[in-house]
From TrEMBL:
Binding-site residues, ATP: 126
Recorded catalytic activity of this chain's protein: L-threonyl-[protein] + ATP = O-phospho-L-threonyl-[protein] + ADP + H(+); L-seryl-[protein] + ATP = O-phospho-L-seryl-[protein] + ADP + H(+)
EC code(s) of this entry: 2.7.11.1
Protein name: Serine/threonine-protein kinase Sgk1
Role this protein plays: Protein kinase that may play an important role in cellular stress response. May be involved in the regulation of processes such as cell survival, neuronal excitability and renal sodium excretion.
InterPro entries (alphabetical): AGC-kinase_C (IPR000961), Kinase-like_dom_sf (IPR011009), Pkinase_C (IPR017892), Prot_kinase_dom (IPR000719), Protein_kinase_ATP_BS (IPR017441), Ser/Thr_kinase_AS (IPR008271)
Key word Cell membrane present: no
GO MF terms, alphabetically ordered: ATP binding; protein serine/threonine kinase activity
Residue ranges of every copy of the AGC-kinase C-terminal domain listed in the record: 346-421
CDD domains with a match to the protein in the record: STKc_SGK (cd05575)
Chain ranges of the Protein kinase domain: 88-345
Length: 421
C-alpha cells in the first residue's frame, strides 16, 4: 500500500503554521461550494491519468429511472391546498443550491419570519433527483421532536416550483464562522460536536442515515445552538445492521467505504462527524488536498496525522471516528451511546444539552430577524427573483410542466391541529 508523504501533501497542518494557507483555504471554499453532481461532471472531463489505486473514482452516480404514474405514490398525510407563494413577502436570498434558493420571507397574515426553500421542478427532474427531494420532505416531517434539527412548518407547490416553509435560523453557517475564525478552541468544538452528535443519534433512532454532514449544513441559531439542515441526501429505512450503497456525499467528507463503492452503514455519519471535528480544531478537513485524486488517495491510504495542540481525549476520539475500517470505527457497536460515553464528552451533561440548558460558547448577537450579518453577502446581495412569489397562470402551463407536477404528488404538507396542542 502506497502512503502519501507529508512532502507530497503539505496541507495537513494548523492554519497558523504556514504561509500561503489563505490562498489554499480560498481554493478549498470555492471547490466545496460546488454541488457533487457538477463536481463529478468536471472531474470526468479532466485529462490526466489517475493512479491504479484510484480506478474506483469513475464517479458516475446511479441513474434513477423516472417513476411511472403507478409508482408515483401520494406520500402526504394531508395536503395544503390553500398555501400559495403570494402569502409571503420574499425579502432576501439567504442561500443557494443546485435546484433553487433559500429566501427570508415574512408571512403577510401573521408577520412571522420563515426560511422558504424554493426549488425548480424542471431542474430536479433533469437530474433525476425527485426521490431525494421527496426523501428530504419525509425526513423533515420527522424532525419536530429534536432541538438541533431544523423544523418544517409546511410545504406546498405550484406547477413549476416546490416550497419548503422552514424555521428561520440566522446565526450563520458553521462554515461561515470557520471561514472567519479559521479554527475553534477545543471547548467550543466539543460543544458543537455534542449537539451535532445528538441530532445524528436521533436520526439514527428513526433508521435515517444523514450522509452529508459538513459545515455548510450546520447552522447556528440566534442563541448559538446547532441546527442541522438540508436532508436531501438522507437515506431512510436503514436498520441498525442495515447497509446502503449509493455513491453520494461531499468530496472532502467521503468515508473510505463510500469511495471504495462498498456497502456502508450508519457509521458513515460518525466518520463525517470526525471530519467536521478535525476541521473545527485544525482549520481544514483531515485528508484535504487541492488535488482531488490525491485527497481521495489520502482518505483511502494515508494515516491520520494529529498535531500536538489538542488534548489526548480529542486525539483519541478523532482516531476512533476517523477509523478507515468501519467495523472498528467508534459508533459501530452501539451507535450514539458509544459517542456519548467517550471521555472527550465527559464535561457534557447530555440531558442539559438536549434541554438547551448549556450556555453556547459563542453568541451570534443578532438583533432580530432582519439582522443578516452572519449570512454570506454572496447570497444577500443577490436580487430576489420576482418569480418566487408568483403562481403561473394555469392557462399558460405547458404539457411538460403539468407532467413535472405529477412527479411530486404528495409533496404538499400541512400539520394537523394536534401538533399545535
Amino acid at each position: 500500500m502506497t502512503i502519501a508523504t507529508e512532502r507530497e501533501s503539505p496541507v495537513l497542518m494548523t492554519y497558523s503554521k504556514t504561509r500561503g494557507l489563505g490562498a489554499l483555504l480560498t481554493a478549498f471554499m470555492k471547490q466545496r461550494r460546488m454541488g457533487l453532481n457538477d463536481f463529478i461532471q468536471r472531474l470526468s472531463c479532466l485529462a490526466f491519468p489517475l493512479p491504479t489505486r484510484l480506478q474506483i473514482l469513475v464517479l458516475t452516480l446511479p441513474s434513477h429511472p423516472q417513476p411511472s404514474p403507478s409508482q408515483q405514490i401520494n406520500l402526504g398525510p394531508s395536503s395544503n391546498p390553500t398555501a400559495k407563494p403570494s402569502d409571503f413577502h420574499f425579502l432576501k436570498v439567504i442561500g443557494k443550491g443546485s435546484f433553487g434558493k433559500v429566501l427570508l420571507a415574512r408571512h403577510r397574515n401573521d408577520d412571522q419570519f420563515y426560511a422558504v426553500k424554493v426549488l425548480q421542478k424542471k431542474a430536479i427532474l433533469k437530474k433525476k433527483e425527485e426521490k431525494h427531494i421527496m426523501s428530504e420532505r419525509n425526513v423533515l416531517l420527522k424532525n419536530i421532536k429534536h432541538p438541533f434539527l431544523v423544523g418544517l412548518h409546511y410545504s406546498f407547490q405550484t406547477a413549476e416550483k416546490l416550497y419548503f416553509v422552514l424555521d428561520y435560523i440566522n446565526g450563520g453557517e458553521l462554515f461561515y464562522h470557520l471561514q472567519r475564525e479559521r479554527c475553534f478552541l477545543e471547548p467550543r468544538a466539543r460543544f458543537y460536536t455534542a449537539e451535532i452528535a445528538s441530532a445524528l443519534g436521533y436520526l439514527h433512532s428513526l433508521n435515517i442515515v444523514y450522509r452529508d454532514l459538513k459545515p455548510e449544513n450546520i447552522l447556528l441559531d440566534s442563541q448559538g445552538h446547532i441546527i442541522l439542515t438540508d436532508f436531501g441526501l438522507c437515506k431512510e429505512n436503514i436498520e441498525p445492521n442495515g447497509t446502503t450503497s449509493t455513491f453520494c456525499g461531499t468530496p472532502e467528507y467521503l468515508a473510505p467505504e463510500v469511495l471504495h463503492k462498498q456497502p456502508y452503514d450508519r457509521t458513515v455519519d460518525w466518520w463525517c462527524l470526525g471530519a467536521v471535528l478535525y476541521e473545527m480544531l485544525y482549520g481544514l478537513p483531515p485528508f484535504y488536498s487541492r488535488n482531488t485524486a490525491e485527497m481521495y488517495d489520502n482518505i483511502l491510504n494515508k494515516p491520520l496525522q494529529l498535531k500536538p495542540n489538542i488534548s489526548n481525549a480529542a486525539k483519541h476520539i478523532l482516531e476512533g471516528l476517523l477509523q478507515k475500517d468501519r467495523t472498528q470505527r467508534l459508533g459501530h457497536t452501539d451507535d450514539f451511546e458509544e459517542i456519548k460515553n467517550h471521555v472527550f464528552f465527559s464535561p457534557i451533561n447530555w440531558d442539559d444539552l438536549t434541554a438547551k440548558k448549556l450556555t453556547p460558547p459563542f453568541n451570534p448577537n443578532v438583533t432580530g430577524p432582519n439582522d443578516l450579518r452572519h449570512f454570506d453577502p454572496e447570497f444577500t446581495d443577490e436580487p430576489v427573483p420576482s418569480s418566487v412569489g408568483c403562481s403561473p397562470d394555469s392557462s399558460l402551463i405547458s404539457a411538460s410542466i403539468k407532467e413535472a407536477a405529477e412527479a411530486f404528488l404528495g409533496f404538499s404538507y400541512a400539520p394537523s391541529m394536534d401538533s399545535y396542542l
